Amino acid sequence: HNAKEFGLEWNRYTPTLQMHAKSRLDLENEMRIGIEREEFFIEYQPQVHLNSGLVVGMEALVRWNHPLKGLLAPGEFIPLAEESGLIVPLGDWVLRQACIQNKLWQTMGYTPMVISVNLSMRQFRQFQISEQIGHILTEIGMDPQYLELEITESMTFDKEAAFGQLKSLKKLGVAISIDDFGTGYSSLHYLKSLPIDRLKIDRSFVKEVMEDNNDAAIVSTIASMARHLKLKVTAEGVENHEQLEFLKLQDCHDAQGYLFSKPLSAMEFEDRFLSQQVS
Ligand code: C2E
Ligand code: MG
Ligand code: MG
Ligand code: MG
């Protein structure tokens, strides 16, 4: 916080940073308009069950087709959306859109799959978040068991507040996973008491799991800890067969990564991963 305040103060006196602030404001306004104009869209990345090799789920990942800047990755606008609060309407749109698509696939007769949606801190902190999500699911007619919400470790920092929110979300019937696990500061004490279902091992550990003994030890430890805590584990960022074999040996349940597929448009996802299946 201090650094940010310092930054703001600095802005008043330096033209470059002032420009920086202006372009941030521009982007914020463009985002506001972009939500209305439906410039955002979702890509879906398959999640694969390692024992069976079957696609069992998908993660919804937002992108922005900016009228001038072209295609923007979430890293280029989510932080600003978080800061400005625009993540609330944007996140709401993503959740609704992702559930509509998932429900549509179910209606078309494809085997029902779980859809994972990333929740931001602001969304997670919202008053009556579970009621709001409940309304969306009822409206769409989607069974809550097919929705998984991804939060990060930092969101559980205020344990009491996080516990209350998580409990009400669990009561709704949705699943909760901890994204980017291992990069935050969650204590083992939190982990054992929070009502969560899954850990997603951050891809930074998976990346060099074959070259770096420390990364291998971390992945193996997270997987075994999760097993003992009766949590499911997903490995993120799996890019090659060697990593996959290692993860199978660690009894990792599911995996996600370029080895299986990059995030795809709804149409591509359907073609590649739904149409093929025998129902
Ligand atoms: P995340 O939730 O951890 O999502 C996984 C990211 O890893 C995605 O990046 C995905 O494209 C990328 N990825 C998947 N497999 C591989 C792989 O094998 N190798 C590599 N190098 N990368 C892989 P993406 O789509 O750029 O999203 C980045 C982050 O932005 C997400 O990380 C998530 O934290 C955030 N994000 C995306 N969509 C949303 C959203 O709708 N709401 C919120 N609040 N955050 C979102
Ligand atoms: Mg995620
Ligand atoms: Mg992640
Ligand atoms: Mg992330």
Automatic annotation (TrEMBL):
<protein>
    <submittedName>
        <fullName>Diguanylate cyclase (GGDEF)-like protein</fullName>
    </submittedName>
</protein>
<feature type="domain" description="EAL">
    <location>
        <begin position="24"/>
        <end position="277"/>
    </location>
</feature>
